[in-house]
Amino acid sequence: MNPIWQQKKLIEFCKDKGIHVSAYSPLGGQSMSNAVLHSDVLEEISKARGKSVAQVSLRWIYEQDASMVVKSLKRERLKENMEIFDWELSDEDRFKINQISQHKRNRWGSRLQRGPCRD
Ligand SMILES: NC(=O)c1ccc[n+]([C@@H]2O[C@H](COP(=O)([O-])OP(=O)(O)OC[C@H]3O[C@@H](n4cnc5c(N)ncnc54)[C@H](OP(=O)(O)O)[C@@H]3O)[C@@H](O)[C@H]2O)c1
């Protein structure tokens, strides 16, 4: 789960059933063609907020009441990725993220053909 693969129906289903959601690949995974970290919409929001694209993505996930499993081998990024709790996205930011066209990719960047939930 991330802003490029929001899985709205699944999130709604889980909320309805009281199931906690945890997002893996919250930054889009480790692919070179990472659609999250290269998103124009997230880039625009990140500039307006003075935050990184990664922080915008993680903050959006946090605001969905989900937890996340984010990975970095870099100390400064580990710190950056934790600095998402003392600010919030605006309604306009949320609206823009909501409009992002959705792409389902696995952690290596390949398109997945099958899955438990299609959107
Ligand atoms: N159980 C499962 O089925 C499953 C499936 C997928 C993933 N996972 C687990 O979930 C965790 C996260 O998944 P993931 O590694 O695929 O995806 P991810 O956390 O979305 O993305 C990791 C990638 O983002 C980079 N990154 C991290 N912080 C960044 C930042 N602030 N700015 C720019 N780039 C940043 C990392 O590079 P650097 O390391 O160079 O910073 C790495 O290339 C992993 O521990 C993985 O094993 C489990």
Automatic annotation (TrEMBL):
Q: Does the keyword NADP apply?
A: yes
**Keyword terms:** NADP, Oxidoreductase
Family recorded in the similarity comment: Belongs to the aldo/keto reductase family.
Q: Which residues form the NADP-dependent oxidoreductase domain?
A: 2-100
The record's listing under PANTHER family reads: 2,5-DIKETO-D-GLUCONIC ACID REDUCTASE, NADP-DEPENDENT OXIDOREDUCTASE DOMAIN-CONTAINING PROTEIN
PROSITE patterns this protein is in? Answer: ALDOKETO_REDUCTASE_3
Q: Which InterPro entries does the entry mention?
A: AKR, Aldo/ket_reductase_CS, NAD(P)_OxRdtase_dom_sf, NADP_OxRdtase_dom
Record-level Gene Ontology MF annotations? oxidoreductase activity, acting on the CH-OH group of donors, NAD or NADP as acceptor
The cross-references to Pfam families, in alphabetical order and at most eight, read: Aldo_ket_red (PF00248)
- The highest taxon in the source lineage is Eukaryota
Keyword Transmembrane helix (UniProt): no
* Taxonomic source organism: Setaria italica (Foxtail millet)
* Official protein name in the record: NADP-dependent oxidoreductase domain-containing protein
